[in-house]
Known about the structure:
By secondary structure, this protein is of the alpha/beta class. The chain is about 55% helix and about 15% strand.
Amino acid sequence: MQTKIKILLIDDHSLFRSGLKFLLNNQEDIEIIGEAQNGSEGIKLAQKLNPDIILLDLDMPRMGGKETLQNLLNINPDLNVLILTVSEDNDDLIQCMTLGAKGYLLKNINTDFLLDSIHKVYEGNNILSPAMISTLIDQFRPNEKEKDEDLYDSLTPREKEILAWLTKGISNKEIARFLSVSESTIKLHVQNILRKLNLHSRVQAAIYALEHGFDKTP
Length: 218
């Protein structure tokens, strides 16, 4: 029997939840196991139902999406939370990814992209709406090229190699398998890369590498 991806919806718009529930429940390998109309209700359901992925809106009454995200990950850092929002604000994107969201999607994406994103997050990858990738790239444009190269040169050869792997959108586990090292070793390298480049998330690191041509793997 095929294992289904268990999803919890947290969104205050009942019509949107109904449409999303209808769409996702029609997929053979996806099941909506719960839905909440606010953050506090969603946190309780997450603890009770143990979903594989949480689809979380940002603009909600009582407890906003970012506060909900932080509380969810404080309780269980391993939760896969995928933001699904109308907000194209750069600060919202950066804050959510810094807090630990596994992805940031705009509600205007098409069905195929949403389904593909759910599967990628389930497999351990991060995902962004295409429009938000350009938003992340733009924040690097004001930086001086020389300064960027100085930061890059501060990385060890192994860290440069792992930075290039991050642009492939794969998980630490997959990188570890490719390089024949432990997953914890890759995690430590990623933390060092973020610190040296003054970045907040692996998604930012991937965008940085792509923008500056540091994406070539051996």
